[in-house]
Amino acid sequence: MSNKKNIEPLVGEELLQKVKDLGSASKEEKARECGYYTETKNGVERVNMMKFLNALIDAEGIQLDSKAVGGGRGGRSASYKITVQSNNNLLIGAAYTKQMGLKEGDVFNITLGRKHIHLKQVDANGDEANGDD
């Protein structure tokens, strides 16, 4: 059996700070230290450079792709579709909240239609904000 540690890969500011702290280490060492590796059944470590580099790009807020254009793999871009999860929750991902400029703590009133959900942002006074949805 291996001594594999289940380490959650760093993201965001934590990732950027760790990479900075690692200074002159190789990119493979930085990726491994930030949790971007797996261990095979035979105990061989494999560094996942693509995930590491993509996480760095995301952490820096760099937008490589313009809004979804044409074919190819979408990755984490907004697909404008969500699926009810096994626990009956609907998860609206970060791609949508970033696109709308929402921040942690923003509050919304929910109105249910027959087959739609309408969110109306609430301002600091608890009043519905007058915006151009």
UniProtKB/TrEMBL annotation:
Record lineage: Bacteria, Bacillati, Cyanobacteriota, Cyanophyceae, Gomontiellales
Top-level taxon of the source organism: Bacteria
Signal sequence annotation: none
PROSITE patterns: SPOVT_ABRB (PS51740)
Protein name from the UniProt record: SpoVT-AbrB domain-containing protein
InterPro entries: AbrB-like (IPR027360), SpoVT-AbrB_dom (IPR007159)
Stretches assigned to the SpoVT-AbrB domain: 79-124
Pfam families linked: AbrB-like
Keywords: DNA-binding
Single GO MF annotation: transcription cis-regulatory region binding
A Gene Ontology cellular-component term: protein-DNA complex
